[in-house]
Amino acid sequence: MAAYSEFGDAKYLDGAREIGNWIYGNLVDLDGPAFDPPPEVETFGGYFLGYADGGVDKSLPENLLRGKSIENNADMFSVFSMIASAETELGNHADATEWTRRANIAGDFVMALYDPGDPNDSRDGRFFTGTLRAANGFLPQGPGLDPTGPRKGKDFANAAFLLDSNTFTTLPLAGTPRYHFWRDADGNLIDWREPVRHIVDRYRQEIEATTDGESITYLGFNIVAEPTRSAFRPGEPVGGLPTGIAWEFTAQVVLVMNFVDRLYGTQEFEVDALKYLEQIGVAQAKAPYGDGRGLVASTLNGENDAPAAGYPPLDQCLGTPFQCIAERVGLAATTWAIFAEKNINIFNIQRNLPTSPAPLGLEAVSPTEVLATWSDSQYEVGYRLFQWDGAKGVEIATLFADETDYRITDLAPDTLYSFSVEAFNSKGSAFAGWDTVRTLRLADLNRDGFVDFKDLTILLARWNQDVGPELGNIVDPLNTPVNFNDLTVLLADWTGPGPNAAPGAANAQLAVAAGSVGRDDDAAGSNDERSEAAGEVFDRLGRRDSARRAGIVRRDGGLVSPLRRLQAVAVDRAMVERDDVVALRRGAMIGRRAGRVGR
After folding, report:
1. Are 552 and 531 in contact (CB under 8 A)?
2. Which residues sit opposite 244 in a β-bridge?
3. What is the Cα–Cα distance from 372 to 272, expressed in whole angstroms?
4. Of all helices (H) and strands (E), which one includes residue 488?
5. Residues 178-222: pLDDT tens digits?
6. In 10 A of CB 131, how many CB atoms?
7. DSSP state of 373
8. Distance separating alpha carbons of residues 51 and 532, to the nearest angstrom
């Protein structure tokens, strides 16, 4: 499918279809959930391993290997999804639907094997390696085989955890709408960062090796936490094998770290990804038995003064359950290093697939509105904007191509929200990752996170002389009347400078009880009553002295006129420009004549 995406030659697509049809026709588990079997028979689903090498008769059911690999199923989800996208592009919509169904059989199997681990440990979520089945009444045993995981029908989850069970699953599935919001067996939403954290905690290696007299410390990863017996050393105990680094899997970790960071719009793994990529470069140049061009497959701990080039014995290798990774320049290690350096997700190679619209930017522009902006994708036909509802992402808007901003409305003040955007076309989609923003406080007019004297300054500066009977609306004070109703709202939301101010609700009660604002939110008694009541509110808040020093209240406790208060603020605190004081003069005089503000 990569060749078809690159060259567009139909023979590559035809070949992929033929192989895919054989896989579906011969290896799909008909007892899986996609085929609605009886509950007592239902398995985890997915696709079987296949047939043993050596020309076995594939017509005999007993020759089918009925174990299932999570890595193989992740591969099939990827390639079947690519075929579905190609069929959509060609206008074969029924075929595209069928290939998508086949892909989801594999993808659902992968997700059914997610193990959240300790729910209180954000670094414990990971994937089982696959499933095992009993043969002749016995479950298979041996390195890399541990049938102690959850059981479903005839399937036993293989609890022998491997690094690539987490990289080969995250790369093809985490960025898709179907699986990005997947829930585990307990109903918990998957966090795709957890398998990466699990890898870092469990499989990280630090070793030392000497090449031509130069001792170097290397950092990287192995496919297992500890070396194991293999076909090359079947009789040697685990404790007799050296630890080491498998560079193929180190490159996979770098790729998946960068991928997940982009997916969530974070930089959690950025520093580590760069560090391990640099280590790959050091290994390319200096690891034992390297050639300075390709990358050796492994480096063993304690390698003592090995030559810079040459060929070690084949059994001089890093032991894993299924192979012994030799200390020789390797094709897999070299190609994965290229993918890591170039940030190429090989599970999603398609022509003209939309690029990610990251980074997503969110700005609270009012107490009820957020402005979302993003980078213009390539090859998109549109964008979908999602809002997190506490359980899943809910689509809230669909936009045309080239649109790179959207104003989200009808939100609650001072509330935390999460949003994401995806670019899409007929072949697929690409996420920008999730970002979070808190809407403004209702009266946080200068958007500094507090409701304090600075906001009172702004409110009085915008006081409207032609209020009339309607109430003010502090949400948009530039376009609506500003009156005593706005003062009510501001005092109700008052925090003062710093995080330890009195709660807004208490301030609202004080404001009403003191009579600084009318209970009908539209009038406030006489000028003297308003002035003294306002001073009493500041006093109860413990802010009379600071208010007096700022020129907000007179020594007798009453509010000074907006003009004088603004003059004092402009001189003493530079909260407003001097031009604002001059501009307010006429409004203040009209306000006094109208009885709306005290002298």
Report:
1. no
2. 300
3. 29
4. helix 484-492
5. 888 788 777 788 899 999 999 999 999 999 998 888 899 999 999
6. 32
7. E
8. 90
User: Are 351 and 8 spatial neighbours (Cβ–Cβ below 8 Å)?
Assistant: yes
Contacts of 474 (CB under 8 A, 6+ apart): 442, 443, 445, 459, 482, 485, 486, 489, 490
How many CA within 13 A on the CB side of residue 276?
A: 28
Distances (CA, A) of 463 to 484, 523, 560, 599: 9, 14, 14, 15
Q: What stretches of 183-234 show up as alpha helix (H) in DSSP?
A: 193-203
pLDDT the model gives residue 13: 96
Give 397-429 as a 3 state SS string. Answer: EEEECCCCEEEECCCCCCCEEEEEEEEEECCEE
Domains of the chain: 1-161 (no CATH), 189-351 (no CATH), 361-438 (2.60.40.10), 453-593 (no CATH)
What's the pTM? 0.67
How far apart CA 300 and CA 218 sit, in angstroms, is 10
Task: Confirm if 186 and 116 have CB atoms less than 8 A apart.
Answer: yes
Residues sharing a CB contact under 8 Å with residue 39, sequence separation 6 or more, in sequence order:
none
Dist. CA 184–CA 186, nearest whole Å: 5
Return the structure tokens found at 388: 């997190």
Q: How far apart are CA 546 and CA 565, in angstroms?
A: 13
Residues 345, 549: Cα–Cα separation, whole Å: 62
In 55-116, the DSSP E strands lie at 64-65, 68-69, 114-115
Q: Which residues, in sequence order, are bridge partners of residue 385? A: 397, 421
In this structure, the dihedral spanned by the alpha carbons of residues 263, 269, 271 and 276, taken in order and rounded to 10 degrees, is -110
Nearest CA to 244 out of 337, 166, 319 is that of 319
Environment class of 3 (CB within 10 Å of its CB; exposed 0-12, middle 13-18, buried 19+): middle
Instruction: Give the CA radius of gyration of the chain.
Output: 33
Report which residue type is found at 118: D
Question: Contact, 316 vs 327, CB < 8 A?
Answer: yes
Positive or negative: CA dihedral 408, 397, 429, 188: positive
Q: In what order do the strands lie in the sheet with 303-306?
A: 214-221, 204-211, 303-306
How many other CB atoms are there within 10 angstroms of residue 596's CB atom? 20
Overall size of the chain counted in residues: 599
Confidence of residue 483 (pLDDT cuts 50, 70, 90): low
